[in-house]
Structures are given as structure tokens and as C-alpha cells.
Amino acid sequence: MSWLLNTRNGWIAVILAALVFPMIVQNQYVLHVVTLAMIWAISVYGYNMNVGYIGSLSLAHVGFFAIGAYTLGLLTVKAGWGFWSSFAAALVLTAVIGFFVGLVSFRTKGHFFAIYTMCVGFIIYLVIGQWDSLTGGVRGLIGIPHPPPIGPITFDTLQSQYYLMLFFLAVTIFVAKWLRDSLTGRTFLAVRNSEELARAIGISPRKNQLLSFVISCFFAGLAGALYVSFIRFIGPEIANIVLGFEMLMYLIIGGIGTLAGPLVGTLLVVWLTQSLQFLQESRMILFGPLLVALVIFYPQGIVGGIAGWRNRRKRTPSQKREGKMPASKAEEVG
After folding, report:
1. Could you tell me if residue 56 is inside a domain?
2. What total number of domains does the chain contain?
3. pTM of the prediction?
């Protein structure tokens, strides 16, 4: 997968496979699960832009996912707005709230930042669950509409919704790649590697951390809005921090800071959990040790581990003896 998402021919192969997937797989349940996995992948890409690119572990990510979902649900069901205007408002509101949360959050550092954002996420969860007159409380919201037609294109079938989510996932991956290769992305990496060194060369860590945080919140809101338009029901559990840890698990397994990591990790874990459904709750007895072993032996994730293996193969005998990387720049992980 690392090679596939790192070459032009690889990209073409992946896109073609994704396009023909609904035509090959006729099982509606499988198509439903894959569509959900693409929505999770969009959220995990947003997580990666904050955790992987700037190096700040936010535990409020699932809260912003819920904000995007509830904003779309409330505006369409209670306020009577049109779907696409509500969709745009959900993205804007999530980014704005993320901006103000980030202003305060980045006054803290390290584990204090993680604890603070976890508290923010828990507050969002409590507000959603307790503000019964607005959010419906534990009853949630039902009857959220599917996306309306765009010209001759309709989204009434599962297959059409699959292609809609695929479109947004492709846009998300393109933005992630563009950001990684841009000057802004390289600035993010400089801040992640050393805030002191970045500050010494004129880079403002606070501004870049805030920008990365807002971008991350934007994609969390995007995933949340897509999720609620697909499921058409939402409850407070969507803001539960357990779901946030699941997203973080997808990212860790795939590879933090890599381009293909969020997609690989999400698809792999979703496939494993679905394959082990027959074990019910006992499946975690098998899945848990597999996850621990992966973290121990591949701390950079699957994609990072593959990239490291490929880089080691590229070394010359003299470089292997000296422990050096190849003289040419190692190919960026897909």
C-alpha cells in the first residue's frame, strides 16, 4: 500500500479499484461497512494533520466530529435549512469552535495539552447528552435527510452514497498530500521536531499549531456531517471519548505522520473487527494482543514499518555498516 499510494500508477490502480468495488461486491452489508470506513478514514486524516504533522495529541477530536454531525442534524431537522447550506455551516462552525478552543489549548504543553483537550471533549459530550431541549438528549435526532440531488446525480441508493463518500475521501487525501508537500506542511514538521529551533529561525510555533488544529477540526466536522447524512440518526454516544481512542488506534496502526497510514489503519481494523464478529465480545481477546504486538514491533505503524524496511534495502553495504540512510532523500511514505 505504501508503494501504491506513492506513485502515479499506484494512485491510478487504487482509484480504479475503489471505483469498481461496488460493481464487484454485491453484498450490501459489505458496501455499507466500507462506506462507513471511508467516513472514519476522513476523520482519521484530520487527526493525522494534528498529531502527525504538528505533533500535538488532541483528545477532543471526537468532540468536533460530533459538533459537525449535530450541527447538520439540528439545522436540517429543527431549523429547516437546506442540506447543503447546513453542510457548509457545520464545517464552518466546527472550524470556528476549534479556533477558539485552540487559542486556550496551546497555552498548555505536552500531556497537559492532552488532558485539557480530553476535558473539552468530555464537556462536549455532556452538553450533547444533557441539553435535551436542543439536542434531544439521550433520544438523539432522527429523520436527518440524505444529500439532495446535484443536477442529475442523486444519492438515494447505497451505491451512490458510497461514491459520494469516496469523492470526499479522495479530496481529503489530496489536501493531506498537498499540505504535507507545501511550505506550510514543512513548517508544521519543523515545529513538531523542535519548537525551540523553529522559533530560532523565525517560525511561530503557536500560530502553526493553531492552524493545524483548526484544519484537523475542519476535517473532523466534515466526517461528522457525512456520517450523520449517511446514518440519518445521531445520539450523544457519537461524542464518547471511546470513539476518539478508536480513531487514534486506527492512526497508530496505520502510521502516524504518513499519507497512507490513516487509510490503511482504518480499513485494516474495520476489516478485522468485522471478520471477528462471530466471537462477539471475546474477539478483543484475540484483537488486543495483535494490537500490542503491532505497537511493539512496528512502533511507526504498518506504513512506517514498510517504509523503514524499504529504506534499509536501499542502503549500500558501506551505509549499512555505518548505520546511514541512502544519500538520496528517502521516498516519502505513502
Report:
1. yes
2. 1
3. 0.89
